[in-house]
Amino acid sequence: MSDAGDDGTIDLGDGAILRRARPGDERGILECIRMLAEYEHEAEAVKTTERLLRDSLFDGQPSVFAHVVEKNGTIVGIAVWFLNYSTWTGTSGIYLEDLFVHEAERANGYGYALLKRLAGIAVARGYERFEWAVLEWNEPSIRFYRKLGAVGMEEWRIQRVTGRALHALAD
């Protein structure tokens, strides 16, 4: 892996590059999101569209960001992320919403490269945290994350309000 160029592009070798997502990437990003949802047994839960991704990632002042691995013109990996904030550290941090690499490309280090890039962004900006969630049953990913030095926040449980419950809470 070579150093990032002026535009943040990293040559991963063998026709693959890691770069910031740009307009026109929506179809490839959405394909990866759908494949991730299928892997997580939640294929029917994906409601986003190319248009929603374009609006979220590229219109005005985006609050969500993405990096992609492109190999020979095809997006084969994504990291979709946003900023969070810690009142304890007084700094922002990166929350990784989605990390996905096409199954046929997983032995090439692309997931590691995406995580390394986001960690580099966090360090360069003075952020003290880089976080994400992983499903309890996803042992291959958990093992991978532990090798990188990630620790599970076992005492914390994510809480979510959606659908009717969200509307009831808002009323």
Whole-number mean pLDDT: 93
Q: Count the helices. How many?
A: 5
Instruction: Based on Cα principal axes, name the global outline.
Output: globular
Strand numbers in spatial order across the main sheet = 1-2-3-4-5-6
Sketch the major β-sheet: 6 strands, mixed
Strand and helix layout:
Blueprint: E1 10-13, E2 16-20, H1 26-39, H2 50-58, E3 65-71, E4 74-86, E5 91-101, H3 110-125, E6 130-132, H4 139-147, H5 163-170
Parallel strand pairs: 5-6
Antiparallel strand pairs: 1-2, 2-3, 3-4, 4-5
Summarize this structure as a short list of keywords or feature phrases:
171 residues, alpha+beta, six-stranded mixed beta sheet, 5 helices, 33% helix, 25% strand, globular
Provide a concise account of the structure shown.
This protein is α+β, with helices and mostly antiparallel strands and 171 residues long. The chain contains five helices and six strands, in the order ββααβββαβαα.
Notes on the structure:
The protein has helices spanning 26-39, 50-58, 110-125, 139-147, 163-170, and strands at residues 10-13, 16-20, 65-71, 74-86, 91-101, 130-132. It is an alpha+beta fold.
